[in-house]
Design a protein that fits this description.
Strands 1, 2, 3, 8 and 9 form a 5-stranded parallel sheet that branches. A 5-stranded mixed sheet has the order 4-5-7-6-10. It has 2 domains: 268 residues, Glycoside hydrolase 38, N terminal domain (7-stranded beta/alpha barrel); 84 residues. The C terminus is likely disordered. α5 links the parallel β4 and β5. By secondary structure, the chain is α/β, with parallel strands linked by helices. It starts with a strand and ends in a 12-residue tail after the last helix.
Amino acid sequence: MKHLGFLLHFYQPPWQSKEILERILEECYYPLLDLIVRHEKACFTVNINYSLVELLKHCGHAKLLGLFAEAIRKEKMELTGSGAYHPILPLLDEHEIDRQIRLNKEGLRKEGLEVGRGFFPPEMAFSPRITTILKNHNYKWVISEDIPFCEKHGFAPFEFIPETDGLPVILRSHLWSSSIAFKKIRGSILEDINSKFGRWINGKDGYLVIGMDAETFGHHHKEYIGDLERFLDEIGNGGQKKGLALEKISEICDYFPKKPFEIPPGSWSTSKEDMDNNIPFPLWNHPQNPVHRLLWQLTRMVLECRNHMSYEGRLALDKALNSCQFWWASSFHQDYDCALQSLPLFWKATLETKDSFLKGRVQRVIDLISSTTGCKIDLQEIDLK
């Protein structure tokens, strides 16, 4: 039997504009959730970060959360845990990792959305140092990318699930996930997976996990909502006869045996070259990126004063830790207008501390960021609702 898991990741940064959010809602979120709720063969593992939940409520789209709840109630999806504001967890200290996980779980619960047994680290950024914290929160599996594992061990497992420190680590298939996300498959997605995956496992029981941004469907690729519906139709019209079952990742985790293995740190954007150069998180902390260095200097500086902030300041700091600022500052996606969107959040947190010296120190780092990027930075306060 070929066991197929499909993860969809729903997220927008806390500073996302209403205009862009509305377009994504129209093109992707509403039609995608409608498809999942109504299709009898829908079976997905889903991550939605609390950052997006707040935006939906603030912009008058709380009804979308009802569609998530309905899909869960109909057993068409399971929710994973994550970090509330989408930080790169392995690059934070244990206190902040724990806080982001707790804020996410509690925030979703207030909206009637209970997370399940699995955990999606933002950007699938995994390091063994987060496993103890995940187990303390009672998560039973975590997902990450298969490239770091393949580079370390020379193969991608399909008959067993590797585990580290007693926590199973589900490995997303980079090959098939990228093939779908970047339109490399011509014709039927199901037929492509069934034939190639079937040859790989050669008649044995095996699993394959695909994962990508939810925005892939309808927003990045307009026709993909229809393609996904055809995929589900094909599952219903003969998937079982072909020995292929679409399952929640927790079901796959229950079915397959576990084996202890070393799981290297990495993310779903970590390449072989990055592994060779010992740079596991290149889009968020590259040693040759001066803007990354300054943003992390700023982050550490403000975090030092986290115990002396008002409630509003601490909330701003939680949001400021989002991964997007580093992603947009990377050499692969360089857009400093987006990369600097979190600076007002850091500034808000700074103004809400009792440290009389912090403001001047933060201002100097922000001035260095301005001169390095060539961008004029406006630190006016933003809406933190």
